[in-house]
Design a protein that fits this description.
By secondary structure, this protein is of the alpha/beta class. 49% of the residues lie in helices and 13% in strands. Strands 2-3-1-4-5-6 form a six-stranded parallel beta sheet, with helices on both faces. Helix 3 crosses helix 4. The longest helix has 35 residues.
């Protein structure tokens, strides 16, 4: 049995446990290669900013109510793992998936969207040249996508999906948005009050 087979068995075993949805990851983050991690790390940051916790053990959830998990899943090198991840998403309790991929054949987001349907998938083109591949879905097989490299926005969109059912996440999104607006106001006031030279020197 290969390491890929082990991962597939893990996913299928987790799907068969009928776990309480409150203890399973709410968001799945997948990427085609660990070389995509520098871009996809912003999705982790956004979820952390919203009070989500990373869940690394399906059977031992962190104390946080809302959690996320992550895997490397290559559409071209490990298609069987991609199918297993998509096919078990609902049974494993995932409510939304963020999928990032790079290169001109960035097929992981749209293939996962097709397999995991109707679980929503938010695609992240890791590079500019990946945009057309990620958004190129036929009618009836939808995917939501962000601009190249914008995994932080992808995570915010995932949280927005969950906020339709969980008031607590909606409140966190509003609070985070207010913090960001306040940050812009602080910068604006400093630029005006200090002038450009003082602002640069602060």
């Amino acid at each position: 049995m290969t390491a890929v087979d082990d991962l597939i068995d893990r996913l299928e075993s987790e799907a068969a446990t009928d776990a309480n949805p409150a203890t399973t990851p709410d968001v799945g983050i997948i990427m085609g290669s660990d070389s995509d991690l520098p871009v996809m790390a912003d999705a982790y940051e956004a979820l952390d900013d919203l009070g989500f916790a990373e869940q690394t053990d399906f059977h031992d959830a962190p104390d946080a109510r809302f959690t996320y998990e992550s895997y490397v899943v290559s559409a071209h090198r490990t298609p069987e793992l991609m199918y297993a991840y998509g096919e078990t998403a609902t049974e494993r309790g995932l409510d939304v998936i963020i999928a990032g991929a790079g290169g001109k054949s960035a097929d992981l987001p749209n293939m996962t969207a097709s397999i995991a349907y109707p679980v929503p998938v938010i695609g992240v083109p890791v590079q500019e040249k990946s945009v057309d591949s990620v958004i190129g879905m036929p009618t009836g097989a939808p995917i939501v996508a962000v601009d190249a490299g914008k995994s932080y926005n992808a995570a915010l969109s995932a949280a927005q999906v969950l906020a339709r059912e969980h008031d607590e996440i909606e409140e966190r999104l509003v609070d985070l948005h207010d913090e960001q607006k306040a940050g812009v106001a602080d910068v604006s006031a400093a630029l005006h009050d200090l002038g450009i030279d003082g602002f640069r020197d602060r």
